Amino acid sequence: MKPIKVFIWHRWWVVGWPAVLILTVLSVIWLQWYSWIPLALVTFLGPEIYAVTREPSGTPPLTLIIRRYVKSWASFFLFGFLIFGIPAYWAWGPTSGLACGLIGGLAFWWLEHFTSTHFQIKHRSKR
Fold first, then answer.
1. What b-and-e string marks burial along 80-98, b requiring 16 or more CB atoms within 10 Å of the CB?
2. 20 contacts 44 by C-beta, under 8 angstroms
3. The whole model's pTM is what?
4. What is the pLDDT of residues 27-53, one digit of tens each?
């Protein structure tokens, strides 16, 4: 049996991903969509490609950071909020962006909650 290799992630990488995520998401408020999309591609795609091509190493992709440090229900809510809220913010304004984000976040949370509880193995008593 081969020993399991453990890779210790660089602390700056683990802290850097959330910082880039927060700054990029907040920039939605100040940038138009045609300016924000290239920024998002550079700030997400660039480090992601770097991390994936260097894996396994001390530079994990964002997915691994989220999986390790954020509960699944919270990450699904965040994804839904961002996926629905950002386009709605640009299309209809802040109030609609917030409303659509909350609806999307709750929908994604519900899907995660349903799948995580539905597929748990339940052992029934033989009585």
1. bbbbbbbbbbbeeeeeebe
2. yes
3. 0.77
4. 999 999 999 999 999 998 888 888 888
- Asked whether residue 22 carries a pLDDT value surpassing 80, the answer given is yes
CA proximity to 89, closest of 104, 75, 77: 104
Per DSSP, helices labelled H in 93-124 are 94-118
What are the residues whose beta carbons fall under 8 Å from the beta carbon of 113, sequence distance 6 or more? 73
Looking at residue 4, what is its pLDDT? Answer: 55
Domain residue spans in the chain? 1-69, 70-121
Residue 67 vs residues 1, 14, 51, 75: alpha-carbon distances, Å: 27, 12, 15, 8
Instruction: Say how far residue 25 (Cα) sits from the centre of its chain.
Output: 11
Show contacts of 41-47: CB within 8 Å, 24+ apart: 44/20, 47/16, 47/17, 47/20
